Every structure is written in C-alpha cells, then in structure tokens.
Amino acid sequence: MSCGERGICCDTTYNPAGTPNAARMAAGSVIEIVGAVASGKVANGFAIVRPLGHHAEQNQAMGFCYFNNVGIAANIVLKNYPNHIKKILIVDCHGNGTQDMFYDRDDVLYLSLHRWDNGNFYPYSGSPSDLGSGVGLESDAMGDTEYVAAFKHIVMPIAMQYNPDLVIVSAGFDAAEGHDDYIGGYKITPRGYAFMTQMLKTLANGKIVLALEGGYVLEPLSASAGACLSALLGPELSPLEQYQLIGGLNSVKPNSAAVSSFQKVVATLKPYWKFSEEVMRDDFRFSLPSEWRAINSLSTRPKRAPKPKRRMPVEG
C-alpha cells in the first residue's frame, strides 16, 4: 500500500488483511471497559490493547494508530451516561490526535506530560504554550523525580480543580527506562508509574481507566504496565505510605531542564488555574517533600557489620 493511501501517514504500516479488525477490537475494548467503570459495574480497569490510538487524528492514521481509542470511548461515555459522567479528565504522554479532538471542549480536560525538545521530538507538537495539551519537557533525560514533581505541583492541582467524574489515562510507556533516545530516552521506573497511578486514583471517586498506548521494549513495557495494574488493584495509600511501599526516590529535586519547563507551564496556565503561592514564586524549584526520598538510596547495598569495640587492657 503506497504512502498516504486511505489517509495513512507515511510513518504507519497498514495491512488490509488484519489491521481493520485489530483496530476495531482495540477501540471496542476501550469503549467496553470505560463503560463498565462509568456505570459502576467495576471500580477501575486497564485495557491492554493493540494497536494504540492516541496519535490517530480525525482524517488520518499516524504513529501506529488507526482509531483514537480513548477519544472515541470518552465521547461515547459522555453521550451514554449524561446524568453522572459530565466531565472527563484524560492524562496522556502526548497524543496529538486526542489533543486535537478535545481542544475546544469543556467537558473533557486533556493533560499531557511528554518530551517536546522545542518541537523537535515526535509528533512535533505539544509546546508548553498549547493551552490544554500540558507539560512539554525539554531534552534532558527525565525520570521519576521530574514526572512526580510535575504531577504534584501542576497536574494534580489542576485535576482537583476540574473535579472530573471519570479519569482516562492513555497509558504510554515510551518514557520508561530502557528505551533508546530516539524512541523516548527517559528514565521513569515502574515504581514511578505506580505512584502516579496511585495519585490519579484519588480523583473521581476512584473511577479510572488505563488504556495501553506506546512502549516498544518488552521488558520495561511489561514491568511498568504491571506496576500500574498493581496500583489499580491495591489499597488507597497516603503519599508517604506509597513511597514507603515502592521504595522512594533517589532524589527529591528535579533537574534544571524540568524546572525551566515547569516555570513556563505555570506562567502560561496561571490565568486559568490556581497554583499555590510557592509554585508561583520565580525562585521555586519544584522540589518534593524530603520524606519521599529513598531511605539509604533504596537500600540496595548490604549494611556493613559494626566494628568490634576496642577494649583497654586491664593490668593486674
């Protein structure tokens, strides 16, 4: 099939024998689990599907995406459950298709944390000034500390003000530690993903659905997805209890590139959302609470045996 035929972007392979059915099954699976959570049949859910969907646009498949699974499901649930699902929060790692679908809507809030590199990283959009798209991070390698700091100081305050009735996460794991730089190159660990999932569970009375998106190296993809699933199934925990459970962070201070990105985002969003006084300060470094630091750097090394006490010789 030639490039661009049937609205297929040149970066995406299409097989007429299997792709249509697979794409419909993926979209249908996300629709099914989102409906089950919205109706109260289940508390939460994780749609483990392929192909992914968040890059798919209205008239074009791209980025290995054919139907925008999350976007379709959000539209359907708003239509089918108008009495108790009035507002949906979508959290993503930058799906340009989902962003475009809901850019002018007030019944869906789209927040994204993603690598941006000043517009030089795929899909080449999602700058900090794109109101509604979210936190576009710079090229320095970001990890647990940077992402959790963005959640604590920016994502969660906005989400709590929006007060959604349902949360849908486009669960992409391109940023998981173990992906090459051209794919993601970031350093988020499974425990980082688990903690962010726990934070989102505090919204919408726990009505949350994860839908699998990107992630291309099997080991970090499976470990990260498994950690998120464990967080969905686990008990509600305080932030400190969560960190004690997953081991904590090696650092509570985000790197300078992340701080610069956060400052740009806050400056752009402050006319529309309320932030704490400390976040509004020009010198604020977006640090996390000191008690969230890992004890003894995750205690991966065995403790040294104590030295025997020297006794003074006794004369006599």
Automatic annotation (TrEMBL):
<dbReference type="GO" id="GO:0141221">
    <property type="term" value="F:histone deacetylase activity, hydrolytic mechanism"/>
</dbReference>
<dbReference type="InterPro" id="IPR037138">
    <property type="entry name" value="His_deacetylse_dom_sf"/>
</dbReference>
<keyword id="KW-0678">Repressor</keyword>
<dbReference type="InterPro" id="IPR023696">
    <property type="entry name" value="Ureohydrolase_dom_sf"/>
</dbReference>
<dbReference type="GO" id="GO:0000118">
    <property type="term" value="C:histone deacetylase complex"/>
</dbReference>
<feature type="domain" description="Histone deacetylase">
    <location>
        <begin position="10"/>
        <end position="231"/>
    </location>
</feature>
<dbReference type="InterPro" id="IPR000286">
    <property type="entry name" value="HDACs"/>
</dbReference>
<keyword id="KW-0805">Transcription regulation</keyword>
<dbReference type="GO" id="GO:0040029">
    <property type="term" value="P:epigenetic regulation of gene expression"/>
</dbReference>
<keyword id="KW-0156">Chromatin regulator</keyword>
<keyword id="KW-0804">Transcription</keyword>
<comment type="similarity">
    <text>Belongs to the histone deacetylase family. HD type 2 subfamily.</text>
</comment>
<protein>
    <recommendedName>
        <fullName>histone deacetylase</fullName>
        <ecNumber>3.5.1.98</ecNumber>
    </recommendedName>
</protein>
<keyword id="KW-0539">Nucleus</keyword>
<dbReference type="InterPro" id="IPR023801">
    <property type="entry name" value="His_deacetylse_dom"/>
</dbReference>
<keyword id="KW-0378">Hydrolase</keyword>
<dbReference type="Pfam" id="PF00850">
    <property type="entry name" value="Hist_deacetyl"/>
</dbReference>
